[in-house]
Recover the amino acids of this structure.
């Protein structure tokens, strides 16, 4: 399977240099990451919200090695929130943040990440929107969940992400559902060992459905993060069975993938949120998109050949 190989490459500096220099890279990166600056991304936000879609914005970048870089990441989100405020689109555009960007892996990283993310959550709340804490590899999750719990004391709308391929996730889902949390469920996009995660796609899909049922039957707000038509249909059926109205859950998909489906779901009255990333440090995010779907890799390889 190519997925694990690509995920391993996502942490290789040598592969980063090689892929960054490849002639077809920019064409494919632009498909998933439509801009580098806030100015670049504003027309995208206006276009998608004008089509009846909602967004969750991600400033890409995970390789934070100093407190100064973590503070810069915080400031990048604050700049984005200021622009969204100017556009008067707060309720339609939330933020997704990776705590690694806010210094989670540094010395005293838990406290540093909480210190840096809190102003972002406060600023988002001030314009009528919220923040979702992205899940990263399994070693970071206890810290992420603790920060999530702390933030919800003052900002109960703060969301978090859980990953179906991890053995622990069903228990996490039960706890979060009972607490009334906003929860985005995804399959998972990090290379995890067999000791902690399912390795087989069929097992991951079965876990996804079990966990989604827990969320739909709970007291929180489920966010279905998937492009899989079968899982989308199952999600709709679980929502109906649980008696949920269309505004009591939502679908989330990545910018650049199944865009027609985004519009179809929105036209049917569903809340459809597009996960939209931007920034210059795109490599890790880009490699996980290639690993998730063979068609993405084929598109990339064709582009490299055509531009070579």
């Amino acid at each position: 399977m190519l997925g694990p190989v690509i995920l391993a490459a996502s942490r290789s500096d040598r592969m980063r240099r090689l892929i960054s220099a490849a002639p077809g890279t920019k064409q494919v990166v632009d498909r998933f990451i439509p801009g580098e600056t806030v100015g670049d991304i504003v027309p995208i936000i206006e276009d998608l919200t004008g089509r009846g879609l909602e967004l969750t914005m991600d400033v890409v970048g995970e390789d934070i090695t100093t407190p100064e870089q973590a503070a810069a990441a915080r400031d990048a989100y604050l700049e984005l929130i200021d622009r969204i405020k100017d556009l008067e689109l707060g309720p339609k555009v939330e933020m997704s943040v990776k705590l690694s960007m806010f210094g989670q892996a540094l010395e005293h990283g838990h406290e540093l990440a909480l210190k840096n993310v809190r102003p972002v959550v406060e600023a988002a709340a001030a314009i009528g929107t919220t923040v979702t804490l992205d899940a990263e590899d399994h070693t970071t999750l206890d810290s992420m969940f603790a920060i999530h719990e702390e933030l919800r004391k003052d900002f109960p709308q703060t969301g978090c992400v859980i990953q179906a391929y991890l053995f622990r996730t069903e228990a996490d889902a039960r706890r979060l559902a009972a607490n009334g949390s906003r929860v985005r469920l995804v399959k998972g996009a990090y290379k995890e060992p067999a000791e902690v995660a399912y390795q087989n796609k069929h097992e991951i899909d079965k876990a996804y459905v079990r966990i989604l049922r827990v969320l739909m039957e709970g007291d929180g707000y489920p966010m279905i993060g998937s492009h899989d038509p079968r899982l989308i249909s199952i999600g709709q059926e679980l929502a109906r069975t649980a008696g949920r109205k269309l505004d009591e859950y939502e679908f989330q998909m990545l910018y650049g993938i199944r865009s027609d489906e985004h519009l179809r779901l929105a036209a049917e009255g569903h809340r459809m949120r597009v996960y939209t990333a931007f920034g210059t440090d795109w490599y890790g995010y880009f490699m996980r998109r290639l690993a998730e779907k063979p068609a993405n890799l084929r598109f990339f390889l064709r582009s490299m050949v055509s531009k070579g």
In short: Strands lie at 54-59, 93-97, 131-133, 159-163, 182-186, 221-225, 250-254, 272-278. Residues 303-308 have pLDDT under 50 and may be disordered. The first helix runs from residue 2 to 9.
